[in-house]
Design a protein that fits this description.
Blueprint: E1 2-8, H1 10-16, E2 18-22, E3 25-32, E4 35-42, H2 49-58, E5 61-64, H3 71-83, E6 87-90, H4 96-99, E7 106-109, H5 114-120, E8 134-143, E9 147-156, E10 159-160, E11 164-167, E12 172-180, E13 183-185, E14 187-188, E15 193-199, E16 211-213, E17 219-229, E18 242-247, E19 250-260, E20 263-273, E21 279-283, E22 290-296
Parallel strand pairs: 1-4, 1-5, 5-6, 6-7
Antiparallel strand pairs: 2-3, 3-4, 8-9, 8-16, 9-15, 10-14, 11-12, 11-16, 12-13, 12-15, 17-20, 17-22, 18-19, 18-21, 19-20, 21-22
Length: 297
Amino acid sequence: MHLITFIYDSELAEYIGKKSSEEGIVFYNRSFDGNVIVGLSAIDLEKKIHNVAQAMLMANKFVISTKNIDKTFGELIIGAELCGKPVIFTDDNNIEKIVSGLNLNYTISNKENILSEIIARAADAETGGQSYTRIDIDAAFNVKGIGCVALGIVTKGAVNVHDTLFHSSGKQVLIKSIQSQDIDIKTAGINTRVGLALKGIDSDDIGKGDLITSEKVGTASSIETEFRASRFVGENVESGGRYVFISNFSYRTCLVEKVDGNHAKISFEKPIAIQKNDAFLLLRNTVPRIFARGTVL
């Protein structure tokens, strides 16, 4: 079973797993009690909150350190409530009063038990069984003798060696080989972080936020959405508002063209690969910056 976990605390992240790649988000890998844990830890939370939002959307669970009870901690717990995913707090400080007004599904753990807590409700994270395949890409590069290699997370279905899939540009790609945890494998299921050797595309044509899918997925310049703003920010999503739009590994500046209750039409500075029912977060310039969550209609 594979679990994707957002971790706020680089020291704790290194305890939970071994550091692998780094592209705005540092990935940490660990096998524990028959499970594979992939930790996502964002770099430079103060300046690049979009990395935090991406990691939160990709993760099944959050591990949030309570060492520093500051404005960043406040932003994280507001973002956690918006995402509605299980949270594990460390026991460095008592935060019961701080989080008492939040609708959080949380536990508190010491460092020694943190891995057990991460996998305690592993079944909650399993959403497999789809015939449809989707991999969200976070990086791509050329490897001598292999060609284009894309790194990503399987977010729907499963991917197999020799599958013919589609990149979000519309190009067909052949899966030549798959690696996970530095091991060659024949198939990878949901939540698996993979390295895919691809035929039919060059790494220059793949970027963070792109999709590889079993059916063609186009890009959109505008979308219809359903959203809700956090009750703690004192701001709603407004017509004419400009925000940062995050959906999994995608990042776009967006304009809210129209708001009708909890529905909004959003347009982008450049097209984005996105699908119906994808979750997203909206970021603003003032703290707390993660202030609204929504779904693509």
